[in-house]
Design brief:
Layout lengths: L12 H20 L12 H18 L5 H4 L6 H18 L2 H4 L2 H7 L7 H10 L1
Helix pairs in contact: 1-2, 4-7
């Protein structure tokens, strides 16, 4: 049997995930469960999954979550950045430019860690 990731170097891994699962449940109960005294508010489950994922990953990786799930919005533009990046990767793969974009001087020219938006902003936020 192959050894996998056990999370042994992070003793708070499970409790961190538990906190964000509870945040997700609280958000759903407070804003998206039907209440006849409130207008109907449909929930975009995919968007909430992205917020949850970013909050968990950033807290595990950097010790502090982005707070997107609790705020119920993309506070730092990371979700939009990932969507834009996936679009760029899709176009690059479809047109054969993917290998070209992997050349360090090309990617450094396109994405800088002091960018205000896009993949560069995400790279810069991860370095801080």
């Amino acid at each position: 049997m192959a050894a996998g990731y056990a999370g042994k170097e992070n003793p708070t891994l499970e409790s961190t995930v538990d906190i964000h699962v509870q945040n997700r449940v609280s958000l759903i109960r407070s804003k998206y469960v039907f209440d006849p005294d409130r207008p109907f508010n449909p929930m975009d489950l995919a968007r909430k999954a992205q917020f949850f994922t970013f909050d968990v990953i950033t807290e595990i990786g950097f010790g502090e979550s982005t707070g997107d799930l609790v705020a119920d919005e993309g506070l730092h533009g990371h979700v939009k950045t990932m969507q834009d990046s996936l679009m760029l990767v899709g176009v690059a793969v479809a047109t054969g430019l993917f290998r070209f974009l992997q050349i360090p001087w090309v990617s450094n020219m396109l994405f800088r860690d002091d960018d205000k938006t896009g993949p560069g902003k995400l790279i810069g936020d991860c370095k801080r």
